[in-house]
Amino acid sequence: MRFSRELKTGIIVIGGILLFIMGFSYLKSTPIFDNSKVFYAVYDHVGGLQAGTQVTINGFSVGKVNDIKFKDSSGDLLVTFTVSNDFNFSKNSVAELYDTGIIGGKGIQIIPVFDQGATARSGDTLPTRIRPGVTELVQQKLTPLQNKVEDAVSNADSVLVNFNRVLDADTQQNLRESVQGLNQLIKSLQGTTNNLNTFLKNNQGQLDSAIGNIHDITVNFAKISDSLSNAGLSQTVRNMEATLADLDLVLKRMEQGEGTLGRLLKDEELYENLANASGELDLLLQDFRLNPKRYVNVSVFGKKQKDYEVPENDPAIEKDPN
pTM for this one? Predict the structure, then answer.
């Protein structure tokens, strides 16, 4: 059977078109006879995600990214990707954009959710989130540190400026004079130290003798203390304390008016009686001295005894003030 030239040409053209379509689909990572489910995800940025990147679930490749384009004038990006029909999950599952390596590659992984919601079907738009990569995490950690370093540098610069303002010509001259004075003081202290060392060296024997004498005095004092302790000094001190306590008790009782001395100190009536008795006794003694015949009358050889006459100025007789 022979084919005409036109039929051969048509077959070649159709075959070429099919090969072109298959090659174009392969380059776009969209197989022609693929029955995988198609899903959509919306991101504000994709960080370099490219068509043909694998889509994974729990680290296992289940599909590929087919297309990335702007969704609308807001600038959000619509990512189209396929997932194999071998695995079913809820439409509430999350399409997470993550870093695939340190160099900055991006990939999509499905975080499956198994709840009471409806099963994800081809054409659904899945919820999305972006997991920070290593670069973003490092940047987040370094940004506060960078701010602190900048603040520290700024503060250090302010301190240096203020320090330069303080260190004017007069201050620098004062500092130089202070340093010179400090050097002179150090030299003086060094000379004093040398003199002290010389003195100690020249009087080493006398110092040793003085230290020995102090040691002997200390030993003798310890012996005297032991002798006083053995002689019953502590018992004497205790007896003295007891005596002082008794004396203090007696004084307290006298202060409270107890006993004879206490009554003499506190009883005013007794004091007045004693004062009156003392006065009367003084009058009696004075009268006895002035008028002994009133109390003693001696008759010699039977001579008649004379009657006693009271003198005019008798101190024992109270005079009427009127």
Answer: 0.38
